[in-house]
Amino acid sequence: MGRGFFESGVYMAKRGAKSKYETLVKPKLETIKSKVRQGITEAEIAKALGISVATLNNYKGKYQDLQDALSKDKGADILQSLINAGIEAAKGYYKEEVTDVVALDENGQKSKVQRTTTKRWYPPNPILHKFYVLNFGKGEGLVNDPLEYELRKARQELAEAEAAAKNWDIDE
After folding, report:
1. What is the residue range of 135's domain?
2. DSSP character for 23?
3. Most exposed among 66, 149, 157, 172, judged by the fewest C-beta atoms under 10 Å?
4. Does residue 52 fall inside a structural domain?
5. C-alpha–C-alpha distance, residues 144 and 146, integer Å
6. What is the model's pTM?
7. In a domain, 82, yes or no
8. Number of structural domains found in the chain
9. What is the DSSP letter of 24?
10. Do 75 and 69 form a contact (C-beta atoms < 8 A)?
11. CA 81 to CA 49: how far, in whole Å?
């Protein structure tokens, strides 16, 4: 009898070429994770790998490491950059703007380019400010209502004055 998959009662693994998953997908799992964080879609990932979306979905069902790479932290980098931009807009910020002015000679030809850089102030966005205070500032003691702020300030001043009154010295 010829030798096949079994040799003396022990199962022998098939020999042959590696699967497309092993050659095309598995070596790029870290890159796939990175692209998922950046918001790249699964269709774009499949195209970049040279496989169809159906094949990618098939691999997701078979290989847990691919499923994890495609599902964890989806769009996290984009979300973080949006949060950072929102916080910056809520607080107000300066941005450098570069302007090029082209000077022409008597013949109408470009004679020189003057580059100027200016800092421009973008004032705080009150709507975003209110959003961040209401959603993230409560635990930090931030308030959005100006009257509530003035009341807290007055309470703090009163508490400081009471503490100072309790600690008076006769020698003064």
Report:
1. 126-166
2. I
3. 172
4. yes
5. 6
6. 0.47
7. no
8. 2
9. I
10. no
11. 27
Instruction: Tell me, yes or no, whether 34 lies in a domain.
Output: yes
d(CA 129, CA 91): 7
pLDDT in tens, 79-130: 888 888 888 888 889 999 999 988 888 888 888 888 999 999 999 888 887 7
From 74, 98, 113, the end of a domain falls on 74
Tokens standing for 73?
């932290």
Contacts of 39 (CB under 8 A, 6+ apart): 74, 75, 77, 78
Dist CA 45 CA 31 (whole Å): 10
Structure tokens at 149: 């702020």
3-state class of 172 per DSSP? coil
Structure tokens at 64: 């847990």
- The CA distance from 130 to 91, in Å, is 11
Question: Does 28 reside within a domain?
Answer: yes
25 alpha-carbon distance from chain centroid: 25
